[in-house]
Design a protein that fits this description.
By secondary structure, this protein is α+β, with helices and mostly antiparallel strands. It contains ten helices and 17 strands. Helix 1 packs across helix 6 and helix 9 packs antiparallel against helix 10. The longest helix has 21 residues. The N terminus is likely disordered.
């Protein structure tokens, strides 16, 4: 069985220049303007050629690992390779990517006309009636491809009833983990994908900056969240920011207790948006009013941890070393050991999903490669008092780590570096 730890690079993208978003426009947007405006008009969408390149990368990995086909059901993975979204149900629908040619589709017979509205005309669709087994249909596809091994990779998010059905109705197939293909392709971003992420992160930071103008005594988290969503909308995109005030900021993913804003409260906001399916993820922590010495000290420690983490980023460095670099700063400042105050890993992979493999966490010895993208989000959480987290996403380049979207925090009262 191929495991997720066998994640690997395909394509060898070399990232040697910055300003990723510039290549997406006929004329580059002027990020220096302060007035919000539509920032996604004119963004170049993905093309059929982009999707075909992804499938070709998948074929290379299948050949390398002697895999005959990859079955994907409705999921982000299916959308990534085929540009087709399909909701999951108890009726098996999906595509078998293969080394020999175009994807071959498996579809409930009564859904065929709907499926044909989305599937390219030249691609084969095989149907099954309600009393028939879709799993035998999948086995037939592999057999008809004339493959030598009968090895079928299963997408990581394919549900277990499909796997059990294949084991029962297609025992001749050898089922293996498809993550080596899906993660191997999605983990290394193209220049166009990096451009989407750069712009998405910039927009979210600008939305926070605009949203913070609405802070006033007594407002609710919903008020701030609405202001941030509205700012995203003004820039032509749907986006969000989930705020926490005061003591609630000590909960890394928020508290269910409602708390309105008071002078002296920490304000922590975490959220993002998506451009052409590629996401941003940004956290900013400020104080409404004058920060206390302790708030400043904790914020400065977290920022130093984030800086040490990004400075540790180099091709060939193990993922776990980025976490260790940040955690050492926090522990040396007295907020340890381990996860006591910094209660989560320093970062996660990001792309079409907010959290995706690989992760920057102790024990992950996977080596960083150019084109990989992650969050960098150390934090210190003191329950009953407050929490601080600073998060920016970055890409691994040949020279090191490069944050997306600029506007990096420089001080507790300068969350966007102005």
């Amino acid at each position: 069985m191929i495991t997720r730890r066998e994640f690997l690079q395909i394509g060898g993208v070399s990232i040697t220049t910055y300003g990723f978003a510039n290549s997406l426009f006929a004329g580059s947007p002027d990020f220096g303007q302060s007035q919000l405006r539509n920032m996604v008009a004119g963004v170049e969408p993905l093309t059929p050629e982009d999707y075909q390149a992804r499938i070709e990368n998948a074929k290379k990995l299948m050949k390398e690992h002697e895999i005959d086909g990859l079955f994907l059901s409705g999921s982000t993975n299916l959308s990534y390779f085929t540009n087709i979204s399909w909701s999951r149900s108890e009726r098996t629908f999906g595509a078998v990517l293969n080394q020999k040619g175009d994807p071959v589709w498996v579809c409930p017979a009564f859904e065929l006309d709907r499926a044909k509205e989305r599937i390219p005309q030249e691609q084969e669709v095989r149907t099954w009636e309600e009393h028939e087994s879709p799993f035998k249909l999948i086995a037939g596809i592999i057999q008809d491809l004339g493959t030598s091994t009968g090895r079928l990779a299963i997408g990581p998010t394919v549900r277990s009833f499909v796997i059990h059905g294949l084991m029962q109705d297609a025992p001749s197939l050898e089922l293996v983990d498809g993550a080596v293909i899906t993660d191997g392709c999605r983990g290394i971003k193209t220049a166009k994908e990096l451009g989407y992420m750069d712009l998405a992160n910039r927009i979210t930071k600008l939305a926070y900056q605009e949203g913070f103008k609405s802070l006033s005594e007594g407002i609710s988290t919903r008020d701030l969240s609405s202001a941030i969503s509205q700012a995203h909308s003004q820039m032509g995109i749907s986006g969000s920011g989930g705020p926490q005030f005061g003591q609630n900021s000590a909960f890394p993913h928020g508290s269910s207790v409602r708390r309105n804003l008071n002078t002296g409260d920490i304000v922590l906001v975490d959220g993002g948006c998506s451009i052409e399916g590629f996401r941003s993820d940004v956290t900013r922590t400020i104080v409404f009013g004058e920060p206390t010495d302790k708030q400043r000290r904790v914020w400065d420690t977290v920022k130093k941890a984030q800086t040490e983490a990004i400075n540790a980023v180099r091709p060939g460095v193990a993922c776990e070393m980025i976490d260790k670099a940040a955690r050492k700063v926090i522990e040396d400042a007295g907020y340890g050991p381990g996860y006591k105050y910094f209660s989560h890993r320093v970062g996660h992979g990001i792309g079409m999903e907010g959290h995706e493999y690989p992760y920057l966490v102790e024990g992950n010895k996977l080596k960083l490669k150019p084109g990989m993208t992650f969050s960098n989000e150390p934090g210190i959480y003191i329950y009953g008092e407050f929490g601080v987290r600073i998060e920016d996403c970055f890409v691994v380049t040949e020279e090191g780590g490069k944050f997306f979207g600029g506007m990096e925090s420089t001080a507790i009262d300068k969350p966007f570096g102005e």
